[in-house]
Amino acid sequence: MTDRPVPTIYPETRFYWDGAKQGKLLLNACNACGGKAYFPPRPFCPACGSRDVGVIEASGKGRLYSYIINHLPAPGYEPPFTVAVVMLDEGVKMVANILDCPPEPEALVLDMPLEVTFEPRGEIALPQFRPAGDAA
Length: 136
Known about the structure:
mainly beta; globular
């Protein structure tokens, strides 16, 4: 799968990609907002602007919030494939592909439980999601 695009890693996102490579889903959390998690990674809170932020390890569990089934060609992907918005248990949304699930509306039930999995891509690992063990 090395023909798939690889994201650019910036100093402020390095922790996220290093965690993913170790099989951990890491999120920023704002200390000024009581530890509220947010995504995507950035050095300030999107809600209050505080730079008093830390890093937490997410559970890797969430639910299918929304999705599209892409039928158009994309570099490194064989259509059709699913692009989803996942609502993590920590209360933040992530965009990712859904793996190990047919790209069909009958299989992609809104609010279905999902779990993170990490797709190796060269020097990094990309967090993706699949149906949770009890949903498969």
